[in-house]
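name: query_chain
kind: protein
chains: 1
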Amino acid sequence: MNKQTFLHHFLLYHPHHHIKATFNKKRGYKKAAILISLVERKTQLYVILTVRAEHLHHHAGQISFPGGGLEANDITLKDTALRETKEEIGIDANYINVFASLPKLITSSNYIVYPYLAFVDNKHHIKINTNEVQSTFEVPLSFLLNKDNTQEINLMRHGKPVTTYCIIYKSHLIWGVTAQIINTLSSYF
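structure:
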């Protein structure tokens, strides 16, 4: 799937909502934003994913999108996604064109995650911040959007059964919030 095909289909079927920060403030949710970075290589789009550093206290070694928590200097959540992308994998905002958002996602760890979609110029340079990221890799968007590549798995969390999504790409296991966001994106196709 190339950039034009993706845009045509996504914009045709996307509900054109805007992210609104409405949530139960009593629960103490923290805001975070991620960037779904789409890079066109020849005639196909790829998604940039990160492998989180092994020494991290939370989600060590897991696959994720670049992103993180809202900080005081961030004017918008889109700014959060762009800042975190620069901090984690070194892609400057000049190479990024944010064009849409997906519905926010509330996690079991009390975060509200705001996903943003962006095209990243294929001339970008990755510079990994080893304090946060172990490595990056790219997955063809067509692979991620293919519902046959996504499975539901049942886990136990704090003694309660939880269902989540799982995608296996080569040697990478994509699951949890990252797979949920991919599943949301695939629902438009």
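note: The mean pLDDT is 89.
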